[in-house]
Amino acid sequence: MAMSFTPRLTRPEAGNKYYITKAAGGYSSAIKGSPTDAHCDVLSNCVGYAYGRFNEIAGEGACKYLSPTNAENFIQYAGGLEVGQTPRLGACMVWQKGATLKGSDGAGHVAIVEQIISPTEIITSESGWKAKKPFWTQNRKKGNGNWGQGSAYKFLGFIYNPAVNVVSTEKGDGVTMKYTSANPPMQCFMRQSTWYREAGKTTIKGVLWHSTGANNKTVKRYVQPDDNAPDREKILEIIGVNKNGNDWNHQKLKKGVHAFIGTLANGDVAAVHVGPWDKKAWGCGSGSKGSCNNGWIQFEICEDNLNDPVYFEKVYREAVELTAYLCKLYNLNPQGTVTYCGAKVPVILCHQDSYQLGLGSPHSDVLHWFPKYGKSMQTVRDDVAALLAGSNDNTGEDEDMDNARFKELFNNMRSEWQDNDCGSWSQEARDWATSTGLIAGGGKMPDGTPNYMWADMLTREQAAALFYRFAQMMGKV
C-alpha cells in the first residue's frame, strides 16, 4: 500500500506542540530558538525544527524519535533508526561542521526531506540558529555529495523516518506537486465492488470531477478494503471503519469512480485511489449524445454542509493535486479539449459540464458548491496548469523570500560550482590557461591542489583582469 505523505512547505502553525518546548506546554525537549519565535518557541533553530518535524511526521503525539543534541550528532543518537545515503520522504539530513563532532568547531546542520524531485535533487524544510526567519524551504542538489551545504560542512547521511513507507526516487513531476510517480496517492482497491468486477478498460481522455451530494466528509463512508486484503487492518486504521456496511465495496451498486477525496480517520484530507485509472467509470451516467464514462478518469469529493471554507479549500487543493498528477501521468493538457461524440469536451470537466454537453445525467455537481468560494471549472484548469508548470501560488514557498534569503540561496548555489568539476572537452584549453598563468584559481581544494572553480561565473572585473594578463603575455601592454 502506498501511503500519502504531506510535505510541509509553510512554517509551523501557532500552537503546534511539536515545535513548542515542554516547559511551554509542548512536546519538544529542545532548547528555545534564537531569536525565539512567539508562536513556536523552538524556532529559530535547526535542531528544534528538525526534531519537531521528524516526530510530527511520525504522528506519535509526543517526541519519541531522535535526540535534541547538536545537529551533527543526530546520527550518533538516532536510537537504532535506519540511516542511509539515499533521500527518502520525511528523512532527517545531517551535516557535520568542522573536523570533529565535538561542537567546538561548529554544531552542524539538520533539515527534513519534504519532496523528492530525483535521486539527486530534493526540497527540504528547515530552520537555523540566529536565522532572520524561523522557517524556510530549500531546493538542494547532491552536487559533490554535500547536498548544497557550504564547504565548511560534510554531509553524514539521512536518518529515515519509521512512519514513512519507502518509495522510489525516480524523477518526480515538479517541486510543487504533492503526488508524483515516486509518491502516488494512497491505494485501497475495492475489488469486491460490482464496478471493479464488471467494468472494462478504456482509453483515457481526461479527468471528471464529482461531489457526493451528501453531508458526510469521511472517506470511510464510501471506501473500505476487501475482506481478504492482506493490509486490511492497516488501511482501516488510516481510513476508519464503516460500521454501517454501506460503502461502495460491500453493496451491489451500478456506480463506480476511480478515487475519493475526503477526511481520513485522523481528520486529514487525502485522496484514496480505489481502482485502475484505465477502468471505464460508472460515474456520470449518459446523456443525449453519449457518456464521459468512456474515457474520463472520475473521482468524488466528499461533501460537508457546503458552508465550511476551510474544508472546501483543503478538498479543492487535494483535487487539484490529484488532477495535476493524472495529467502528468497520462500527458493530458489541462486547458485542452477533445472532440468526442460530436462535442468539443474539455479535458477537465465536472458532472454538470458533462450533462450540459449531452454526455452525462442531470446532476449539478460540482457547480452547486464551487461558486460559493469563487471557484469554477476554469479556475480548476488554471490551477492545475499552474501546478504542472511549477508556478502555483498556494505552496507558500515565496511568502518569506526577501533579499537576504535570496542572497543566501544564491551563494549556496554558487558554492556547488566552486570546485574543479568540469568536462573533458575543455582539457587542452584548461591546461594551457593554467600553465601560462592566465588562470590562477582561488584557494585550494581539500587535497591541496589549486581550486580553479571552472563552473563558476566570471564577473566583468575578473574578465578585465583576465584580458589584461593575456595582453601582457602578448606584449601589448
Which short descriptors sum up this protein?
endopeptidase fold (from Nostoc punctiforme); 6-stranded mixed sheet; 6-stranded antiparallel sheet; globular; Lysozyme-like; single chain; 15% strand; 9 helices; 477 residues; alpha/beta
Show the helix and strand layout.
Layout: H1 46-58, E1 83-84, E2 92-97, E3 109-118, E4 121-126, E5 136-141, E6 153-159, E7 186-187, H2 194-198, E8 206-211, H3 232-239, E9 259-263, E10 269-273, E11 296-301, H4 309-330, E12 337-340, E13 343-346, E14 348-350, H5 351-356, H6 377-388, H7 403-417, H8 427-435, H9 460-473
Parallel strand pairs: 7-10, 8-11, 8-14, 9-11
Antiparallel strand pairs: 1-6, 2-3, 2-6, 3-4, 4-5, 9-10, 12-13
Explain the overall architecture.
The protein has helices spanning 46-58, 194-198, 232-239, 309-330, 351-356, 377-388, 403-417, 427-435, 460-473, and strands at 83-84, 92-97, 109-118, 121-126, 136-141, 153-159, 186-187, 206-211, 259-263, 269-273, 296-301, 337-340, 343-346, 348-350. It is an alpha/beta fold and 477 residues long. The strands form three sheets. The chain has a six-stranded antiparallel beta sheet with strand order 1-6-2-3-4-5. A six-stranded mixed beta sheet has the order 7-10-9-11-8-14. It has a two-stranded antiparallel sheet with strand order 12-13. A hairpin with a 2-residue loop joins strand 3 (109-118) and strand 4. The longest helix has 22 residues, at 309-330.
